[in-house]
Specification:
The protein is an alpha+beta fold and about 240 residues long. The chain has a single domain, classed as Glutaredoxin, CATH 3.40.30.10. It is built from nine helices and seven strands. The strands form two sheets. Strands 3-7-6-4-5 form a five-stranded mixed sheet, with helices on both faces. Strands 1-2 form a two-stranded antiparallel ribbon. Strand 6 and strand 7 form a beta hairpin. Helix 2 packs across helix 9 and helix 5 crosses helix 6. It is globular.
Length: about 240
């Protein structure tokens, strides 16, 4: 049986459905989303790891050239549809607020062969980047796919989502199929292969070290591992420069 509820601020009536066993009213999507966003924040305490002790990584063979000059490059390879990437995101956001000054953080949407949805999501990422709205789109797209369970897997659905976020639909479609985005997608496919990853999320430090939650053991431990690898990479650079 549905229970009618009147929203005082709008004068609207909505139905709330009781749980068939407990009789409690089920939470609506907004409440659920708020809880999803809050819970990771309660578990963000992180432990420092010495660069001499860090073992939770694999070497990238051969090492890859970086594109960030004197800064240590940290690349995140991810997929919007990946639940593990979504769970790691709050830890990354917290880390970015206090990341070392010598670090340049780069997101690359991974694209494996014969995964059209992965490519569509990569196109969405690069479309947002080209249009200058990546900060507006990035986390809300994650939330829409995982917390709200929306199916945003093709161009039409993504165009509608971008429109909800204030992006002109015609401009979205033009950019989504543009030469600039095509080039970025080709590069993402190539880097996904060359970094030797077999899943996401994967983080690459200075083109040399590959890690992520699977190697770190937990989501909370992932970014301390990355910090240690950044220090390790900086020490290796200093040693090479001193020769």
């Amino acid at each position: 049986m549905a229970i009618e509820r009147t929203l005082p601020s709008r004068g609207q009536t909505r139905r709330a459905y009781p749980h068939p066993v407990t009789g409690e009213i089920w939470m609506n999507r907004r409440v659920l989303l708020a809880l999803v966003l809050l819970l990771p924040a309660l578990a963000l305490a992180q432990t420092k790891i010495s660069p001499d002790d860090v073992i939770e990584y694999e070497p990238v063979v051969p090492p890859m050239a970086t594109s960030t000059g004197e800064q240590i490059e940290v690349i995140e390879l991810f997929w919007y549809g990946c639940p593990h990437c979504y769970r790691l995101e709050p830890y990354i956001e917290r880390w970015l607020e206090h990341k070392p000054d010598n670090v340049a953080y780069v997101r690359i949407p991974a694209i494996f062969p014969n995964r059209p949805v992965w490519e569509n999501h990569a196109r969405a990422f690069y479309t947002a980047e080209v249009l200058g709205v990546i900060d507006t789109i990035h986390r809300p797209l994650f939330d829409a796919l995982h917390a709200l369970r929306r199916k945003l897997n093709d161009e039409d659905a993504l165009a509608a989502f971008f429109a909800e976020m204030g992006v002109d639909e015609a401009e979205f479609r033009k950019t989504y199929r543009s030469f600039a985005v095509d080039g970025k997608v080709r590069r993402a496919k190539d880097l996904t292969r060359r970094y030797g990853i077999n899943g996401v999320p994967s983080l690459i430090v200075d083109g040399r070290y590959r890690s992520g939650p699977a190697l770190a053991g937990t989501y909370a431990r992932t970014m301390p591992v990355i910090d240690a690898l950044v220090q390790k990479a900086a020490a290796e650079r200093a040693k090479t420069a001193a020769k």
